[in-house]
Amino acid sequence: MGTPIVKILVASHKKYRMPADDIYLPLHVGAEGKVDEKGRALDLGWVKDNTGDNISRLNPGYCELTGLYWGWKNLKADYIGLVHYRRHFCIRKRSRDPFDNVLTGDQLRPLLKKYWVFVPKKRRYFIETLYSHYAHTHYAEHLDTARAVIEEQCPEYLSSFDRIMKQRHGYMFNMMIMRRDLADSYCSWLFKILFALSEKMGDDSQLSFYQGRYFGRVSEIILNVWLDHQVATGVIPADRIRELPTIYTEKIMWYKKASSFLRAKYLGKKYEGSF
User: By residue range, what is the domain housing residue 60?
Assistant: First the structure.
């Protein structure tokens, strides 16, 4: 058996510095309908997510998931991954230049002998469960409706859903690297749920642009549900999942992040932007 082919999509909606390693494929997400200042189709110089089998038009609500869908339907690789233009996996932080710390193919390939799935290190909320944090910062109805969809489509996942909602930690950011067969299984499950969620939610035009991106946020949480069920049923042994550190290439506004969280939790002020 030869060296596994790995392709990690780097989702971006604008021109940005990209990792040089050939395991990465920059992908223009939300490309459908985007034009430059001269009215021409916007060209960032990368593959666009409105080619082949795609859901690029759904990007305002689905965020980077239009990139995941594109990769699922159009990429040929043994491992498929998704990261963001500003957030990447790493093994260790050894340089002030964050791009010098981005996970490389040389670092990843030896790990493929043991691990089938790679996810970010758990984000811990401490004073919130995954459900309560979402309910305070967004709208609980999104998760409640997702649960109803899961109950209809795949009730065997309900126990995992309820367990994950009570956790105070989870794998976030819609970042992962998966063996192809597992990526196929996950994406088939995920997008069937999200399409049904859209039908059940109906008209959500009253939501702000930021809050309207809830399909991407719900998917962050239910990735944990899918993984929990795979482990519980023995499809993916727990020791085949590897957590990796992440790096953010821009300055994080911790004060704004903390103050916005407290206003959401105690004053009912929903999030209206990233930090």
Answer: 6-267
